[in-house]
Predict the 3D structure of the following.
Amino acid sequence: MQQGGTALEVRVLGPLELVIDNGPVPLPAKQRRLLAALLIRVGETRSADVLIDSVWGEAPPASASGLLQVYVSQLRKALPAPARIATFDSGYALSLGEASLDAAEFERLLREGKEAMSDGNPALAASVLGRALGLWRGQAYGELAYEEFARAEAERLEELRLVCLEARLEAGLALGQQDDLLPELQSLALAHPLRERVQAQLMLALYRCGRQTEALDLFRELRRRLREELGLEPGSELRELQRRILEHDPTLAVPGSRIERLAMLPAPPNALLGRERELDQLRQLLLRERVRLIVLTGAGGSGKTRLALEAARQTSASFANGACFVDLAPLRNPKLVPRAMMSALAIEQASTDALETLRAAVARRELLVVLDNAEHLQAAAPIYTELLAQAPRLTLLVTSRVVLHLSGEHVYPVEPLAAEAARALFRERAREAEPRFQATIGDERTIEQICRRLDGLPLAIELAAAHIRTLTPTELLERLEPRLPLLAGGPRDLPARQQTLRATLAWSYDLLAEDEQRDLARLAVFAGGCSLEAAEAVCGTRLETLAALVDHNLLQHKATPNGSRYTMLETIHEYALERLEETPEANAIKRRHAEFFLRVAQTANLNPGKLAPGGQHLAIANAEQDNVRAALTWALTDGSIELALRLAIAMDMFWTANDPREGIRWFAALLEHRGAEAVAPELRAHALRGYGSSFAISGDNDAAERLWEQSLALFEELGDEHGRAVLLHRLGDLAMWKGDLERARVLVEESQAIHERNDNRLERNFGVAQTVGTLGAIARDAGEQQRAAELIEQSAAMGREVGVPWWESGMLAELAWLSLQAGRVDDAESSARQSLALAEEIRDRAGRVFGVGLLATVAAQRRQLEHAGSLWGAIEQEDAVAPLGGWRRHRHECEALIREAAGPTFETARAEGRTLTLDDA
């Protein structure tokens, strides 16, 4: 497949330029002259004397020889690879390697254009010669054209330019374009009044335009000029043309081209929407000189065919012999591909070998051929390669759900539609189905959800939009779970595989080998994708199978900071999950999935009752939370409550940091399940602690206290001193929030004493870090600000030493708040930014909200009301998504400080901020 790289272009058909990646390489004047002198005889050795004359002319300095060596050295450094300058005893030689020289490309195209004209293909000739002339940007060698060393080469190229122009005009006349060409011919004839070929072309154009008298007058004027200025008579060809014009020779009429121009593209039934960027990129690819095989890949229903047809329609005029469309879907035998192409190209079979006939017929044509639905005919790939080798002006635009893996193949992935484009497509197709349909503001939000649920796949969106005849958008959304049953009943003139989304997906599924089908079904057990390790461990999937499924566009591969990740579009996932449910191994696969993600969640180290060295990894839990939900759902349904509780406990700190309501839902469902009665007391104690933590962070202190008391009682029965210390600290923290500072101090100091006796270094140090920080918060509430600051700073440092960034972040936020209370705004900002940076790094949602809230307060204190309002609005929006009650007191305190400075500017920015995410703010 085509790989990107830096390409060097050397341009002399205009001012001398070296261009890399469409950007010029600057060169000083003397080096430009040296480069021009070497380019005039590129590949040949040029003596030092010749180069000195080229650089300095008739008056070189005495040090010219030494300076030349310096300039050569500098030019070597400036020249990008693959160009290089070699040194020989006799001088220097420039080689360009694979770099392109526009003059050489121009001469090659000129030869090809002349050959096409000789072969009776004026359309191809006109196209090729037009591209040759398009390489010119001005006078050859630009400002150096009149220098003695460059003049001869510049004049030679200018003469070839004129020859090319004449040849292109001749091809145009052969195509009957005399009306369009007449103004250009008249200007050229005025510029070159004694050039007989140009005058003859103008005479012919005038005659074909019905202006015989003017054509004959032109001949007489040319003959007069030739006699007076050169003492010559017009040549025999010109005299013969005059005779034929006088006699109205019928052979002067527009000749028929031996190769007709094709226009065999199916007319689209409606407008293509939302693909402007892709169309622009495809047009550029199709018109690029060396790009001849483009493969549009993508999932079934992504719109590959429609995009290919529109790109072909918009570029077909640039192909001398047009474009045609070949539908490969009905074929089952790869050997029938040449016959299908011959049929589309209206080629009659001249021999028993269809491929040989096809090769001969397209060898001299400049064609764009769209090959649609090539995925099931992989064995036909060598046919494409052979045709491209035999027909240098053939371009193939292929749609396939599978990459072809051919040399020179440019793979263009067709992604699902972007959100706005998807909504526009839905609205348009809905109006086609029901002309009275007008989307309300509420409908727009629903349509966005519909399109998101359908993965932005055009086919799925069009099938869904057709139901607007009988359903409102809200009713349609409600019926899209599951998706596949509703997405049927497409237009009857479409192929059967496109009339339902299930049929489209079945077509892709049937193309897979048996082991690939099995693994696709197994991989559907994952929600939100999986890592390579997970695919191997849970499904036993080999890397080569994953690669095959990616090639078939049934899996998507993404490189992440944590390695490869494989995902499915939700529509594909639903289909694959149906296939899994049909197998006897479905439950075993789901159990392996749940057990694997229990290990993953435990690796994240987010159970505060059993911390391990290495720090907490919220990012791991964040990346796999969809898989955790799927595992919990299965375990709850299966009755595997012990496994589910272990998994929920392992997610404890993630839920409290991101969405405590989710923790409440899962712990409630699991602890209320009848199977929870049989779990070990230790497991129940940890679960009750996590359940209470989610309530505490969500703001329900009474529920949290009740659950923590139950958890504490179980840990005391078990003799688990560490578990008891954790709960005493949490109950003390809760007492502080309730304003009972004395009880809070007693509970926290008891917790600290237990932690200090712990032989487990990590548990001891982190436990003490937490209790020191909470004692600092108690001192703050008691008005002991200096002691509070000392204890909180100590706690932050201890959290950093232990490697618990979320605690360090929280303590830095507390320091920021202390600084705000003391009026030290700069100190507050510094601590808040440090806190926010840590929270961002570990994706601690609660820490991010607190950090942004502090910065909003800092901005308000500085009277930066627009900034303060924007930040505060974003916090309100975030809190509306999933409330975080854990910082509610600080929120009220921050809001009180902000209100002191608020006004119209703040309120306007606050309203705008409610439309932003925390990242945007």
About this structure: The mean pLDDT is 87.
